[in-house]
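Folded chain entry —
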Amino acid sequence: MSRAAFASVVAAIVASDFITKRIAEANLTRFPRPIFGDWFTLQLVYNPGAAFGINVGEHSRWVFMALALVALVILGVMVKNTLPTDRLRMIALGLICGGAVGNLIDRITSSRGVVDFIDVGIGSTRWPTFNVADMAVTCGAVALAIVLWQEGKQTAPETT
């Protein structure tokens, strides 16, 4: 069941990320569209770099595309080595993989960068604009860290 959960999560994240990005591109401009005051707005941004605006120059697209592919291979090995009964770990890996694939699709199909459109903050204090894929990677990484921490606690020898 867990491998099916993994595949379902990956498919749901990739599909929802793709659809929301196309809607954002069709309906948003680079000017904020307030949803809940100025603390939650929608605004179209193309990010040629990585999270938090990390940029490595003119080759950022290719560098981050290669890093995403390497990460997906490592995550694939983790999925293969995960017991089918470890549902939470599979879901966490599915969130991370789905988000990585969602942003990788943008990097492959557009030289403008990854489509971001969710903007939160207060006044001029803003979080970097993000998308569904970014949320999935973040939530999946937190969940995976908790799972791995719990596994570490169970296998660590007790010291006196």
Remarks:
- The beta strands are 33-36, 40-47, 114-122, 125-126.
- The longest strand covers residues 114-122.
